[in-house]
């Protein structure tokens, strides 16, 4: 059975529905949203549970805290590695297992069926870049400060930044520079690189408002069309043009039979607002 909105919120993440078909997912671990193991596990679980809700059409991911989006990883959690088996091979397997689980949790926005809009402000460091790189759309308040922080703590970013960011950004030289140096950068460089689609003047309130307005616009569209568009865009990122043309031909061979197509066309002709049913029969109503 699908979870209700109230059941989605947890110890570190707050979920609300500020408008019909829209969810606002807020990181809420004071003072700076530093991620522990329970925090990132909850993050992945929340998004995976949202994906089975039939009438959610767009999500805004933000921070509930004034200081910023997230300071990244809480490194006190790395003390757990001291309990791993000391044999090199076995320790490597244990480390790999936790890294794979971590990658899957932070990648949850990418596999979520509906679009996820990241709305960041203030400090947006380290793991923050892994998280927003897995989102579909990225807005930042003008006070945002970013850093690909991992080399400063002796490791290569391994949760998604180095896998996704080079495919998002148009300026590969800048991606390399920022990843090698770990220096802070602001919204101007983030936009120049291609990480952001919009910079919003202000801080948390302003960027969340702007992201919710875009989410509301997405929610007026056919959920079948939006789901298909997200799937085809992700496929295009990782495949050749011809592979993607074949993929979308197969996809639309089925999805063009949806009633959403006729509903959208009829509404356009009559200059009326189209209405669309949930993706499947809901177990609970938002």
From TrEMBL:
GO biological process: fatty acid beta-oxidation
GO MF, one example: delta(3,5)-delta(2,4)-dienoyl-CoA isomerase activity
Domain of life: Eukaryota
InterPro entries to which the protein is assigned, alphabetical: ClpP/crotonase-like_dom_sf, Ech1-like, Enoyl-CoA_hydra/iso, Enoyl-CoA_hydra_C
GO cellular component term of the entry, any: mitochondrion
Pathway as given in its UniProt record: Lipid metabolism; fatty acid beta-oxidation
Keywords: Fatty acid metabolism, Isomerase, Lipid metabolism
Family classification: Belongs to the enoyl-CoA hydratase/isomerase family.
Protein name: Enoyl CoA hydratase
Species the sequence originates in: Steccherinum ochraceum
């Amino acid at each position: 059975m699908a979870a209700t909105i109230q059941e989605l919120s947890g110890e570190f993440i707050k979920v609300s529905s500020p408008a019909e078909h829209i969810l606002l997912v807020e990181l809420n671990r004071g003072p700076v949203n530093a991620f522990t193991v329970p925090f990132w596990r909850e993050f992945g679980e929340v998004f995976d549970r949202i994906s089975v809700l039939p009438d959610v059409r767009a999500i805004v991911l933000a921070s509930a805290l004034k200081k910023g989006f997230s300071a990244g990883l809480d490194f006190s959690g790395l003390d757990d590695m001291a309990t791993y088996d000391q044999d090199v091979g076995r320790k490597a397997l244990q480390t790999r297992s936790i890294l794979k689980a971590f990658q899957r949790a932070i990648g949850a926005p990418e596999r979520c069926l509906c679009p996820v809009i990241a709305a960041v402000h203030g400090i947006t460091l380290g793991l923050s870049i892994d998280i927003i790189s897995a989102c579909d759309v990225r807005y930042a308040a003008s006070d945002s400060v970013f850093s690909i922080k991992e080399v400063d703590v002796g490791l290569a970013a391994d949760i998604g930044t180095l896998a996704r960011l080079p495919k998002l950004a148009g300026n590969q030289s800048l991606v390399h520079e920022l990843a090698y140096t770990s220096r802070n950068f602001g919204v101007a460089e983030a936009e120049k690189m291609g990480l952001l689609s919009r910079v919003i003047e202000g801080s948390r309130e302003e960027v969340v408002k702007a992201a919710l307005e875009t989410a509301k616009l997405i929610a007026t569209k056919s959920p079948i069309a939006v789901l298909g568009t997200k799937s085809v865009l992700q496929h295009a990122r990782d495949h050749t043009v011809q592979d993607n043309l074949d993929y979308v031909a197969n996809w639309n061979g089925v999805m063009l039979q949806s009633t959403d197509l006729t509903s959208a066309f009829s509404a356009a002709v009559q200059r009326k607002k189209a209405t669309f049913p949930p993706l499947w029969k809901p177990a609970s109503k938002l």
